[in-house]
User: Fold these one by one.
Assistant:
Number 1:
Amino acid sequence: MNSKPPGPEGTFSNWTTRHWLRAGVSVTLVVLAVVGALGGWAMWRTSQITDELVDRRSPALINSIRLQEALVNQETGIRGYGLSGHADFLQPYAEGQADEKAALDRLRPLTRDDARTRADLAEVERLIAVWQRRIARPIAAAPAPEAPKIAAQRTAEGKTAFDALRKAMARQQSHLENERAAAGRDLRRAETLRNWMFALIAGVILVVAFLVFEGLRRGITNPLTQLSSAAREVAEGGFARNLPGTGPADLRRLAADLESMRRRLVEELHFSEESRRLLDEQAADLKRSNAELEQFAYVASHDLQEPLRKVSSFTQLLQRRYGGQLDDRADQYIAFAVDGANRMQVLINDLLAFSRVGRVHNDHQRVRLEEVFARSVDNLSVAIEESGAEITHDPLPEVVGDTTQLSMLWQNLLSNAVKFRSPERSPRIRVSVEREGDHWRFAVADNGIGIAPEFQEKVFILFQRLHTKDAYPGTGIGLAMCKKVVEFHGGTIGIDPDHAPGTRIVFTLPAVGDTAAAPERKTQP
């Protein structure tokens, strides 16, 4: 099967914008070069004729007229001297000779390139020489008494010679005038040609500019406008709009790439809508699960605590009524039951408080931390007084948050600082605060027993205890609740590993602007 070579249309269809621009610029440069060369030739031709007219034709005619005037002055002087014998008439003759020489010196180079004017000048010089030899010089050289006699003898010959010279001069000037007129006509024709050539150049430039503009509009601007308009429609949500591809090959490839991207976006959109539908279903399931959890919390707070209170009450009754009447082992078993029931009740209450963070207590408003901190210290006043703790703090700012949750945060942090005190020294608790960008950075430092580095991350996990309940009472939920409160308010919390002795817990809360705070306060034991 014979393959057909690609034709011009197939070749041009593969041209990119760069190819079209190169071709257009090349053709434009060639056209401009041609018309520029024609314009330059017209200018050169006009300049050449102008130089011919100004530098040769007109000066030749002018010097021929000057030569004729010089000869007329000589003839007048010779005739006056020949008639009167007065030497004063020789003055015009001498001046005429000087003018004649100057005119001939200028005229000879101007007629060198033209055979006819050169022949005319040679004839004039020959007749001048005859007139000078036969008439002018003999009379000028004769003494004053003899001059009239010689002039009278040669009157007819002198008239004939000078008339012949006049005719030669007239013929020469006629030829020079004709040549100057012809040069003038040539100059006018050259100027007309130059003007038409400039008009042609201007027309060609306008046509080229129009063709370039039209080519750019049809080949680049219109395809880009159509493509950008379609792309804007797609960007505004019209994903069903196809992206047209016209113009040079690279613009068509660009349109094809954008169309491929649009199709991928449509596919991704469909996938995203499907994923969102699944997320909505999962959110609905999660909402239902949260409702079930809230129901469970309600059950735990009411239905589960009721039998637990009964167990605790009856075990305490057994302990009071039969304590000391049974053997020691029975008393020990009853004590275990009472303690387990009490601890179970505390654990359930703590779990309920933990689950309510961010769910039940979610009333965000401007909170004065000074007041919250003061209430927390007041709630812990008995423990602070018994331990002899001293608490100092910087002026505390206002933040936006939930008052109940922030109260739980301060109370847990201060309670831990008092509880985990060192038996070797009195508790000293220091609360500091400083602004860091758009957050407040708080630090609660104590001089207690501290936390080993390997446990500084684990203490924020639910039910993580580092000591037995006999050494330090509690459920291991306090710091986990602090972390949940801080993160719910958009902050972070952690332990400073470089602080010693004791523990330094650092947390952040978002700032809400300039706030007023009270002076530093100190709580004495």
Number 2:
Amino acid sequence: MTSSASADLTRLLFDGRYEQSHKDLHDLLLDPVFDPREGLDMTEAGKLAYERSRAVHGALETPRQILADPWRLFALAEWPSLVDVSTFSLLMVHYNLAFGTVLEHGDREDTKDLVDELDRLDSFSPYMATELGYGNNVAALRTEAVYDPATETFVLNTPDALAQKYMSYSGFRDIPKLAVVMARLKADGKDHGVFPFLVRISDGTALCEGVHAAPCPEKPVQGLDNGLTWFDHVRVPRRNLLHGDMGGFGEDGVFRPASGNQRKRFLRAMNRILPGRLCVSSAATGAGRAAVYVALRYAVQRLTNAPGRNDLPIIEYRSHQLALFTALARTYAMTLLLNHAKREFTSVPPNAVPAELNHLVSITKALSTWEMTDVIAVCRERCGAQGIFSVNRIADYGSLLQGLVTAEGDNQVLLATTAGQIIAAGEADPEPAAVTDPHGRDLRDAGFLVSAVRHREQELLRRARTAMSDDSVDRTYFEAWNATINTGLEMARARGVRTALECMAEAAETARTEESRTALGLLTALYGLTEVGRDAGWYLANGVLTAGQVEELAAQTDALCADLLPHVQTIVDGFGLTPELLRAPIAADDYVSAFQARTGAHGPSAAPAEADANVNANVNADADSGAGEGERA
């Protein structure tokens, strides 16, 4: 394949916006401030993440300008985590969740000094919504802000242990923090629901009066200052209420909420969560692509034995191909699905998000972070012992994904909520949808694969609606939902997979070179067959596949791997990554020398086949499946 094909794949993966939105972020990561630093403890690593966040802020346009361009925000979410997963977390909390909330609901003349302080990053802004006892039910949070008309201040208080703010960045007291705190606004004896407030947490020397914090236990890799935070009658000026169009104080000093119920106002106050889910998915797919890039570059150099041969790159083994090429296909699928969700999000006014878009973004967030969690785990395993070391990045990406599946809505809860909304939005069809006759159909045909997954999605939806509307049994709504929830989850997942397949097929059709079109067609088929194979029994039982097609699945995926092998280098070149950017020794052109340089070893200069002693690896015990497939590092 040619470089023009790689450029075409880059165009598709970055939705034609690489030069406009991504390239300077790529180049910024080459700065020495992002060079690996060995021997740091968790606190030092956390402080370094703050230093790197300031470097990113100083090199780019202001947060206000970035928030004005969602594509730029999504790009910012995608790149820094490739070299420091903690920097991603700090930037996204400050830019999207906290400062985004300030601009949407509190960008007024009387708050200009506070807004400018955050725009300059003079202070970092934690986002304090989740409470210890209400992790998946933020609307029920208990932190309260009681208005005192005599002083025109709110008294912010944590009423009990369950109401402590949980996981927010409050541990480093020598870093100025001006947080967005979600609290229950109470005025004139009435509870008006949850509103955001700007609250100074620390002034750069110590926590502010009445603010208390305790560190959370350490997390692997990420040394950030997550903590428990609680408030003891902290006075907050009235102007620090970020009420936006959700209410306000009249000339008589009385607070009046906007029309609508508390739930509606709460969702309005939390509206940065939706773009936040796209930011989370951007980080996940970026990490997934980087993990596949590292694993495949290593697989080309890593030597193993084979029947009749002593030195064979491990990429030649079909078992290794199946694992990594499937990961490659899933990474392309999730990237293209995410691009589709981003386009849909940016095409509607921020305050007029239709239910269908909310469903798409939520499904994309859950599916992409789950898929990339699996992709990264596969890549780590396929790199053997080298995959364990942080210096080779993949293990760090695994830690990142453990946070992303929970961030901006725990995946299981988010997908179940979305499934429930989809099920409730229509009536049950009395009869199953017609099945396309599978006899004689090509298992590689994208149209056939899309129709198969669509049928599963529609049939699961029909069954879920039928089950929920069944009044022949005396049961509560919860009992009905509890008996349906797993069908709903599978339906919502199938919708995401079907949409991703459609995006892949469309990308293949719009590819501009024969090489990129061929590569995308193969990736589409591999992703589709992998998904159909996941539930092959269901497809067989429902007449979507024949028994012969089910038996043929394994052979077809093997054949796709063989067909993909000549194209893999160009496919990963489409990621826009380089060994110089990732600084992962096993992704270098000479990984043995690079690994020795990073470990300080001074072994003999040797070809990879002679380098076993230098890296202390005997990986015959770490062999893939297949006779004689013991690896040598």
Number 3:
Amino acid sequence: MKTINHAAQGLAVFGLAALPLAVHAQASSDDQASPTVELNPMVVTAALAPRTADQSLASVTVIDEAALRRQDPASITDVLRGQPGVDVTTQGSFGKQSSVFIRGTGSNANVLLIDGIRLRSATTGAASWEFLDPRMFERAEIVRGPRGSLYGADAVGGVVQLFTPEGEEGGPQPRISAGGGSFESQRYSASLSGAEGGTRYHFAASRFDTEGAPVRRDGDDKGYDNTTGLVRLSHTFDSGAEIGMLALRSRGSTEFDASGPAEDDFVQQVAGIYTELPLTERWTSRLTLSEARDERDTLAPTYSSFFETRTRTAQWKNTLALGQHEVVIGAEYSEDDLGDSQTSGLAFNEESRDNRAVFAQGLLDFQPLTTQLSLRHDDNQAFGEELTGSLALGYELDARHSLRASFGTAFRAPTFNELYFPFVGSSNPDLEAETSETVELGIRGQYDAWFWDFAAYRTEVEDLIALDASFRPVNVNEARIRGAELSAGAEFDGWTLATALTHTDPEDRDTGNRLARRATQGLRLDIDRELGKWSLGASWIAQNHRYNDGANEQRLPGYGIVNLRAGWQLAPMWSLRATVENLTDKEYATAQGADLDLATFESIPFDYINAGRAAFVSVHFGP
């Protein structure tokens, strides 16, 4: 624990010490090209409409294409780990089950979107983050805080949206990469994109294959393979009308441990079409039809199962521009269908449910005061009606500093597992949705070459779903989550810096214990330097201890890891990249499993360990 505390203190000091350098860069920025666009990016997830980060009245983090290319992560969870307010737990490395906690809320209490299409399992309520290839995306937005009044169920802790490339103006631009490294890993990707005559296109494919690493001490390697394809097309007519489509599909398998060798075959898929019409100078209407698919076929020593979720959604959104103000009004219909889902030959008591919703938002600009108001009504076939709303106020203190305050409500829908799991006594069809209220205060400083952002919040969750003494889910608990986040970034003289410090206090109000698997302190520092044809970078991520269980008896120590990266421009269009993950070969775990002692019928816990030091090298062709 002392090691982690010293690492955390060192990281905090180093991150904050970098700010005076950024101040120096600010003072001399008149002689440089301003990087304001990168440090204050346009975001769309926070308000269903484009706003710069400082105008969004939300706590938002953007990981842009440049950062994704520099870090070249193997998993989306590597990108999210340690970001402000974000905690990630895994049951091993390379395609193993992962959970993403935002502001202390559960993995099934936040929303994953891919180009506006939600992807998750309706049986668990959570997304399969571990099966998404980062090379398919050019941007990620992390919005922290409740967004139930915009996105409906489960947007309690926040929303993560991944954006695929849409194609840039010009002729076809190919990109090809190939590489490999530790654990007999191989990775390939290729894409072709461009735009001409109002038509944009992007085609991409990738393959990742590894023998993997042990997920428990003295265990066998657990392999993973993933093949992904992506197609995105759009066309804009002279009238301003636009049509488009998206299709993304990942398919593969991952080995894991379930009291013996086990394997999942998986499919992750999103597909959608849309049309956007400028009906008048002030009124734009957009209709989107989509289907998301989450499929997992499991074979383990003691059981087999097949779970699939098909979520079909129709959304109609209308945007009205009223001078400096903007109003968004829409309606949405969605259906979750479990298809042939079963476990050990037993099917669910209910296999589908639908949800009808209407929503409205007002973005009102009375400079220096700005206001966002939103309201949404959901009517779900399984658990009834829910009304959510939010109010956010922003005030510009001057050209560089702004205050924000917000209040929002949200709810988490009971999952199919909680409502209808086929084992006798293991589900409860009378469950109600978890509901939450969140208050947040924030302040941001935005300069030419750097920024900082601080937020403090408090979330109260009622009707928390937990297991009773007979392991049946019931609405009994209440939770209180308090926290604060400080983030900063700078770009100057070839340097790119980003740092995040997170404090979270997620408490079960009934017991006073910390919620399971949540760390309370997290830090992340990313440093990159451009040196002509060379680039160098490092990331330092540290978290304190957590408990695997709600009783706070199974303690998992904190950890700190260092990742290194380097790039070399070999020739025009050709580059070489190398990464070293977990430089110090740190053994760490963020989750535990359990074996059953057949003699005593007692559970014997074990740590799910992450991979040790790993090196990867790849060659790239393209812009």
